[in-house]
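Researcher: Go.
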Amino acid sequence: MVIFKQVIDILNYIFMAILGVGFLPQIIYVLLFFLKPKRFPKAQKLHKAAIVIPAHDESAVITSTVAAMSKQNYPADLFRVYVIADNCTDNTAELARQAGACVLERFDDEKRSRGWALDWGTQRILDEDPEIEFFVAFDADNLAHPDYLTYMNDAFDAGAELAAGYSNSKNIDYNVSSAISGLYYLRDSRLCRQPRSAMGLDQNLSGPGMMFGASIIRESGFDAHSISEDAEFTCNRLLAGKRTHYVDQAEYYEEQPTTMKDVFNRNIRFGHGLNRIFFNHGMRMVGKFFTTGRLSYIDIFLQLMFIPIAMICCVWIPLYYGFYLVEACVRFATDPNLLYGWLKTAGLAIGCIFYLPFVLQALFVVLLERKKLKCKPAKLIFPCLVFPFYMIAYMISIAIGTFTLKPKWKHINHHVNVDADAFFDTNAPIVDNEPLIAADVDPQADASSEDDGQSPSDESQT
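Model: Structure:
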């Protein structure tokens, strides 16, 4: 037993070191919150752009999304909204056309994913209009700020071929689930992407709103077809020597899941996709760091390390500390202080190392970004207090995803359609989602949850 304890103690030191290395960059970025992100100068030229929206059975929201995307403060002859109706079984294509989008319908029983849709669609768009210089890819439930293309054009004109925007939420105060999910992405934009931008590090282009040059599509197509196609696309480009950027002024809004079941199912798919990327690209990132000395490769590798981190947190920690808890309970009659000491140590560790830091981060983000929120900051106090429990669910679902051979796609129900004019009206009062939410979508309208092998349009966050 003594030798067994020594062995597991040594393993625990190793795993704790891995956790420390994995979380160290996050701590550093939080401490550097005051750094200003890189800003791009006003463009000398307006470049031709295409807004691309892959959509699979998105009839509930596609009309309002296309209408909103069409209202960019950008010359109408220099951009167009394209909807890739991907293996749709509803009237998504028809509704998108009626809303003014150029629709490309795709049917492929074998190549069914958002990445394949973007690969197929962007190449056909360039065949139709070779003058397009850059793309911006959104999901069917997204809303882009009217100046989104303008700021991305600034970045592109300054030489940026790949960039990510600022992720916000259009329904952050719908309920607790949407609030804590929205807080996660606000935290990522404000406390992770912004410091990286200030330090000149590359960005993981996770999530919608990705800008990529047409030259990249001509060179290699959209060569990322996994569940986490955005992270895979980022890794492919970085390994090819490209740089990725963050444009904090380019703001987009996602509809956050309104049930923890939807959050859990989505993250299982993320875990499956990221697990493959970690093993396929992780060590190549380390190798590129040693051959180029570019810190971004190590930074991206540490982001991909969330896969082993999730496994350690969900498997090793319960087993290791559970073992000592069982031992303390067995020896309680003869040595009660052993159990009391275990409970005291566990309480301090959970409270001071896990719970309190995540609550403070969530509250800090709300304080820093209060002017960008589409709700009153006070409504997010309770979600901030339960934010650590979201992180637990996030790690568990990611860990489950790593063991899942082919996770099933569960359609995420949409509950809000947004009137873009009211949403971006700075003079409109913000009171209980009014006048921001124009209509509450009937959950039964898109309640299909059967797996058809199709990657949904909102599956894209690391």
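Model: Confidence is low (pLDDT under 50) at residues 431-462.
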